[in-house]
Automatic annotation (TrEMBL):
<dbReference type="InterPro" id="IPR040044">
    <property type="entry name" value="SRR1L"/>
</dbReference>
<comment type="similarity">
    <text>Belongs to the SRR1 family.</text>
</comment>
<dbReference type="Pfam" id="PF07985">
    <property type="entry name" value="SRR1"/>
</dbReference>
<protein>
    <submittedName>
        <fullName>SRR1-like protein</fullName>
    </submittedName>
</protein>
<feature type="domain" description="SRR1-like">
    <location>
        <begin position="73"/>
        <end position="232"/>
    </location>
</feature>
<dbReference type="InterPro" id="IPR012942">
    <property type="entry name" value="SRR1-like"/>
</dbReference>
Length: 345
């Protein structure tokens, strides 16, 4: 293929991409200009509420939320945050998801805040008339949980949005959260690993430490709450997560140092690395209580890591100054990363 032909193909691709973006923007503009009858939408919404109120599904979901509260050893939900509800004036699923939100607000008698960039102007008016707090700015799912128990309602949301929420609350405050969204089990088990690493890394990382309560999809319209689960994160599991992440960092650092001293062989064939991985696996935490042996092994690994780094630094210094005579105190300090008290830098 000649250079001119290659350029021509690229231009065609760029034009197609531009046309696709333009069509999406045009569609979004047209959606925002949709005229809706508020009274009709409110009437349809109020027709949907009793269908949920007297359904087996509503009883089932309240039972499972109570179960989650019991596991977390708390008895009250203080706030509900909702993302990704969609245009409830246009979509049946969004209408019933909003109906459930209203029932949860009434049942737990708490404030409800919600946001979706797709909301139409008149939909926002309806939400405010229903005494719901419409968030003004696009938080991209990055709401930070307080010390009070918060119910996060994200039905059928993109995994990137769920990932953003986890990222913003990557600490023990996650134990104050009850998350109703797409099943983490389905996300992890039915997705390619590379796709999870790129778009749902925090979902993948928290997956071994979360508790998932599956919801029986027995509502009349099965598409409304399909593949939806309740997820909670106990303090004990979050401590385990923190410990395991710390151990992984140490193992990666050891691997990096061992690469410097085993250039002639593959790292996986290095006997020392094999032993480290074998010990890490055999002492992997299997209960909520950290065992003494695991702590001792971690201390030993950190000590060995310090030794390897020192050995490497020593060799670097020796190679750099062999045959160059004595070096100054400042040169030595710079080599080991030590800042002298009188150093103005």
């Amino acid at each position: 293929m000649s250079e001119d032909e290659f350029i021509l193909v690229n231009r065609r691709r760029r034009r197609k991409k531009f046309e696709q973006v333009f069509r999406e923007q045009l569609l979004l503009t047209e959606c925002n200009e949709i005229e809706i009858d508020k009274e009709t939408i409110v009437r349809k919404l109020f027709d949907a509420v009793p269908k949920l109120r007297y359904s087996v599904f509503k009883t089932h979901i309240l039972h499972n939320i109570s179960k989650a509260l019991k596991i977390l050893n708390v008895n009250k939900i203080f706030e509900i945050i909702c993302y990704g509800l969609g245009q409830f004036s246009q979509h049946n699923s969004s209408k019933y998801q909003l109906a459930l939100l209203l029932l949860l607000k009434r049942h737990y008698n708490c404030q409800v805040s919600l946001y979706d960039p797709a909301f139409l102007a008149k939909e926002i008016e309806i939400l405010k008339e229903l005494k719901l707090n419409v968030i003004e700015t696009n938080e991209e799912g990055k709401h930070t949980i307080s010390n009070n128990v918060t119910f996060i309602y994200m039905p059928h949301c993109p995994r990137q949005l769920i990932n953003n929420f986890l990222y913003s609350n990557w600490n023990e405050n996650l134990s104050n959260c009850i998350l109703l969204t797409n099943s983490f089990s389905d996300i992890v088990e039915k997705s390619l690993k590379w796709h999870l690493m790129k778009f749902a890394n925090y979902v993948l990382r928290i997956y071994p430490y979360m508790t998932e309560i599956k919801l029986k999809n027995d509502f009349k319209y099965t598409e409304v709450f399909s593949t939806t689960s309740i997820h909670i994160f106990t303090k004990q599991s979050l401590r385990r997560s923190s410990t395991m992440n710390s151990n992984v960092k140490i193992i990666r650092a050891l691997a990096q140092e061992l690469r410097h001293i085993s250039l002639s062989e593959k790292l996986k064939d290095n006997i020392t690395m094999q032993y480290i991985l074998e010990q890490a696996y055999s002492h992997k935490e299997t209960s909520e209580v950290l065992c003494k042996a695991q702590k001792e092994l971690k201390n030993l690994a950190e000590t060995y890591l310090c030794y390897l780094i020192s050995q490497r630094k020593y060799k670097e210094i020796k190679m750099q100054y062999t045959g160059k005579g004595e070096r100054s105190i400042k040169e030595t300090a710079d080599l080991v990363g030590f800042k002298l008290p009188h150093d103005p830098k």
